[in-house]
């Protein structure tokens, strides 16, 4: 714009490369490249069976990461999603289980179980949101402590045992690809629509950019912030429905290891940890890339730890790109 | 001391500086003026070693000066006193002064605290700052922080000091003190470059003046050759015949905003005034006199203990959302922190206040065509630069255009009462005159405008009536035909007006 504004920008060709690397579709291109590159190396990779398995595994992650994206856009973070998944899982199982559940065998078991799981998500999210908005505490420490408490509670309550005997109707939601696909795409699609087309979505971005300016401009900052934490908790609960179905058991340690994947997928997809920036579509690409990475490295017979190292490195690069992107935009 | 000849700089083929030349000897001050985007900052960045010129040469103290990076420039004795202060608020004065070169204990990697404190104290005495070297910088006023910056430059043996808009956040008193300090630096033989939008200050302070317009040096020479009017017309390229629009004195209009005995301990005391329909009411006073505090209380950002506010005859309990619904608009003094989402798109900034009006149904789906039409309309109304696309972040706009965005987002809400806190701070003359016209138009359309400004000339040109605040109280009230610089200053300094003046 002004002379000052153009001052620290790189040259034109540099900018073009930068744009490609930093565009919203960079991760999709990267995923496609990875897919093509790995195909000849891993024999079982490009089979229908493997791909269906791959997609099935990605769906719950997509749902949690979508909720996380909402929170990140407002400049917050929710570290408690994994423990919310675990608590919702065991609460749902306690309600539905044919062996020991309160409503075991009843026709109401499945709807009541799912409702209870969603209630757990909303409650944990509401707790986080209230601490952040009413008590004005930093989201990182709030959700870190919620994570510890909720996770500890889930394990203590179940004595660290899985709860089996879930109704077939419930298991089908998560274990069969089609229903899981519908649920996950429904959640992601709804979140995408809210972010791009609705008042609350645009407000969320404004809060992420500058909560002070948003407040003075009449944005109900507290209400919107509370809402995104509740939505994020509910997202974790829906993901819990899918995970629990896939495992056919309620487990108090469900999702314990996916926290990095959740935040990593969002960041890979261009969501900024500084707030104000991010899309559900980008997050979906991030989930896709991490899923491909996981699956293909597994097929290449790499150990769990090598995979962890690789994923860590990839997410680190993504976080670095986030920083570069900010610098390019404000230059 | 410093000389530049034929400095040319292009960014992506676009020339930003087209042949700038000047020479400045020791003990003299050069004033650099120009609108935002004229190339002042680029020139300073070249001097500071941030990037090299495409053409042209520079000399410092008689030898060619080719700084490769900012540290190079600092080593050569070129120091910057920036508009935004570059100090660490959480560190002490002494730590800030020696951040890059802490005195050590012998050759051990330990800081010699005693030595640090002693040397810092000596520097502080030199610049006339009475605070102790261990004081955290965040406890200092803006003016005192500026002195710390100067002390820092002195500690680096600066030969050339460049002041980039140093007075924007200073009170008049602090400004005077800064100017006195600058006089002493000149006596010591330093060369100074002074960049400012305040042309009166430039004329008062500088020996020579260089005027830039669109990267071109359109004028230069000793101070005696210039007047404020001449500088303005050179900067703008056309003569702005009247900076301020003509104001028709409003005939006794109905009251719009009535404030009665408004009190908040430590901020404002017993404030009573009435703002009428179609009136521009100025709030004068020194920094800290309670002007901004009053604005924030009226809008609902800060609470008040006692008193009453009535808007259009009905009582108002201010809180941002409620105030906006009742027709209040607040343009805060710091648009970067509170006015804009700098990294968000221009269109999103414009839409922010009125977004809810375009939401439909229980889920608040936005009616995007209408929103786009509204944004396009208001862009024209404030004459926002047409070259900036709606999707570009607001940070890419110049200060004047950023301020237009802030005004435009409120304009969409069609407020009845505008509260403008330093609406023209840090923006260039051309944009200022457009904003004045806009404010005047708003009043003619029947809204009430409350303007806070530190520039008395601005209030005189713009307002129908001025209230002068001091220590949270209204000390004087002047109607347009009684505007008097001295009287405003006296009241601002806390003197009681002669009896019978207050209505």
So what's the overall shape of chain A?
Answer: globular
The arrangement of helices and strands of chain A along the chain is HHHHHHHHHHHHHHH
Query: CATH homologous superfamily of the largest domain in chain B?
Result: P-loop containing nucleotide triphosphate hydrolases
Give the overall pLDDT of chain B as a whole number. Answer: 87
Radius of gyration of chain A: 21 Å
| CATH class value of chain A | Mainly Alpha
Structural class of chain A: mainly alpha
Briefly note the structural class of the backbone of chain B.
alpha/beta
Tally the helices of chain B. Answer: 17
Strand content of chain A: under 5%
CATH topology of chain A: ABC transporter involved in vitamin B12 uptake, BtuC
Beta-strand percentage range of chain B: 15-25%
Note the gap between the termini of chain B: 58 Å
CATH architecture of chain A: Orthogonal Bundle
Fill in the CATH topology of the largest domain in chain B: Rossmann fold
**Which chains share the greatest interface?**
A-B, 36 and 54 residues
Description:
- The complex is a heterodimer of chains A (331) and B (503).
- Chain A is mostly helical and 331 residues long.
- Chain A contains 15 helices and no strands.
- In chain A, helix 5 (81-96) packs parallel to helix 7 and helix 8 packs across helix 12 (221-247).
- Chain A is globular.
- Chain B has a six-stranded mixed β-sheet, with helices on both faces.
- By secondary structure, chain B is of the alpha/beta class.
- Chain B has helices at residues 40-47, 70-75, 93-97, 113-127, 142-155, 172-187, 199-205, 228-236, 291-299, 320-326, 335-339, 346-351, 368-381, 399-411, 429-444, 456-462, 485-492; strands at residues 2-11, 14-24, 29-33, 55-60, 63-64, 78-81, 160-164, 191-195, 208-213, 216-222, 255-264, 268-276, 280-284, 306-311, 314-315, 328-331, 359-360, 365-366, 417-421, 448-452, 465-470, 473-479.
- The A-B interface holds A 1-9, 11-12, 194, 197-200, 202-203, 205-206, 209-210, 212-220, 276-277, 326, 329-330 and B 11-12, 14, 16-17, 36-39, 41-42, 45, 50-51, 215, 299, 301, 320-321, 324, 330, 332, 337-344, 348, 351-353, 355-356, 358-359, 363-366, 368, 385, 387-388, 392-393, 395-398, 401, 409.
